[in-house]
Specification:
mainly beta, 111 residues, Thrombin, subunit H, 0% helix
Length: 111
């Protein structure tokens, strides 16, 4: 399944805590791996399958982001979960810089 990317993504690696409520409104927390991040969202690697639209709180050392699951795709190690930030939340490396961060720009294919 292909998703349109509006912002440049930065590859990264960081262990983060997430919080969410299930359909019975029971709060859960789990540690997940941050795979990539952009100004408007991020991708997490986890062993949990999340329904589309699930609200997540993503905690980082000096704050948090809130967002909703936009996709959840199974892979060989678990699930890749795409999260779009809620209004009012935007990533910037000035506020949160993952331990391992690789920023690059993909060149469009040559015609």
């Amino acid at each position: 399944m292909e998703f349109e990317r509006k912002d440049e993504r930065s590859l990264c690696a960081e262990l983060l805590e997430i919080l969410w409520k299930d359909d019975r409104h029971v709060e859960h927390h789990e540690f997940v791996t941050l795979e990539d991040i952009s100004a408007t969202g991020l991708c997490l690697a986890t062993d949990i399958e999340f329904p589309i639209g699930t609200k997540l709180v993503i905690k980082y050392p000096r704050g948090k982001y809130e967002g909703r699951v936009r996709y959840c795709q199974e892979d060989a190690l678990g699930y890749q979960v795409g999260v779009q930030f809620e209004p009012g939340y935007q990533w910037s490396p000035r506020h949160f810089r993952p331990s391992h961060l690789l920023q690059f720009r993909l060149k469009p294919p040559e015609s």
